[in-house]
Write a structure and sequence with these properties.
The chain is an all-alpha fold. The protein has one domain: Up-down Bundle (f41 fragment of flagellin, N-terminal domain). The chain has 4 helices and no strands. Helix 1 runs antiparallel to helix 2, helix 1 packs antiparallel against helix 4 and helix 3 packs antiparallel against helix 4. The longest helix has 81 residues. The protein is rod-shaped, with a radius of gyration of 35 Å. The N terminus and C terminus are likely disordered. Pfam families: 4HB_MCP_1. This is Chemotaxis methyl-accepting receptor HlyB-like 4HB MCP domain-containing protein. It comes from Flavilitoribacter nigricans (strain ATCC 23147 / DSM 23189 / NBRC 102662 / NCIMB 1420 / SS-2).
C-alpha cells in the first residue's frame, strides 16, 4: 500500500466525506423524483384507467337495460312507466359521460369517446320521439331498427374504449416497474460507492496509524 503514503490524509478524508454527502443528497433528490413519478403513475392507473373502465362498464349496463326496455316498448307500446324509465337511463348516461370526461384521454381515446357521445345523442333523440308519442302507440319499425343499429355502434365503441384502458394500463404498469427498477439500481450503485469509499478511508486510517507507529519507533531509537 505504498500509494497511501503519498496522500494527504486529512484532505483526502475531507474530499471523500464531501463525496459521501454529495452522493447522499443526489440520491435523495433522485429518490424523491422517482417517488413522485411512481405516485403519479399509480394515481393515473386508478383515476384514468380503473375508474374509466368502471364508467364504461356502467355505461354498457345502462345501454343493455335501456335496450331491453326499448324492446318491451316495441312489443307492448308506449306507456308512462317506460318513458319514465328511459328518462332515468338518459340521466345516468349523462352523469357517466361527465365523469368520463374528467379522466385523462389519449388522442385515440378522445376520438372514440366523441364517437360514443354522437351515438348517445342519437339514441337520446330517438327516445325523445318515443316520449312524444301517445300512450299505447306502437313504435314504428324503422325507428326500432335505427335505434338497434345505433345501440350496436355504441356497444362497439365501448368495447374499443375498454381495449384502450387495458393497453394504457399495461403501459403505466411497465412504467411503474421501470421506475422501481431504476430506484433499486441507484440504491445498489450508492451502496457500492459507499463501500469503496469506506475501504479507502479505512486504508487511510491504517496508513496513518502505521506511519505514526514507525515515527515513534524511530524517535525511541534516536
Amino acid at each position: 500500500m505504498k500509494w497511501t503514503y503519498s496522500i494527504k490524509n486529512k484532505s483526502t478524508a475531507a474530499i471523500l466525506l464531501a463525496i459521501i454527502l454529495g452522493l447522499t443528497m443526489l440520491t435523495n433528490l433522485l429518490e424523491r423524483k422517482r417517488f413522485k413519478e411512481l405516485e403519479e403513475s399509480f394515481t393515473s392507473i386508478y383515476e384514468d384507467r380503473l375508474l374509466a373502465e368502471n364508467y364504461l362498464f356502467h355505461m354498457y349496463d345502462n345501454l343493455k337495460k335501456k335496450q331491453d326496455l326499448f324492446e318491451l316498448a316495441a312489443q307492448k307500446g308506449v306507456c308512462h312507466t317506460i318513458n319514465a324509465d328511459l328518462n332515468v337511463y338518459r340521466q345516468e348516461r349523462g352523469a357517466l359521460i361527465e365523469k368520463y370526461e374528467q379522466t385523462y384521454l389519449t388522442d385515440e381515446e378522445d376520438g372514440k369517446f366523441n364517437d360514443l357521445k354522437v351515438a348517445l345523442n342519437q339514441i337520446d333523440e330517438l327516445e325523445e320521439k318515443i316520449s312524444d308519442m301517445e300512450a299505447e302507440a306502437q313504435i314504428p319499425q324503422d325507428l326500432i331498427r335505427k335505434h338497434d343499429e345505433i345501440t350496436i355502434d355504441a356497444f362497439t365503441t365501448l368495447s374499443a374504449l375498454s381495449d384502450i384502458q387495458t393497453a394504457e394500463g399495461e403501459l403505466l404498469r411497465n412504467k411503474s416497474k421501470q421506475i422501481i427498477l431504476g430506484s433499486v439500481s441507484i440504491s445498489h450503485f450508492e451502496m457500492t460507492i459507499l463501500i469503496v469509499i469506506a475501504i479507502i478511508i479505512q486504508a487511510l486510517v491504517f496508513s496513518s496509524s502505521t506511519l505514526l507507529v514507525k515515527k515513534n519507533q524511530r524517535a525511541e531509537l534516536n
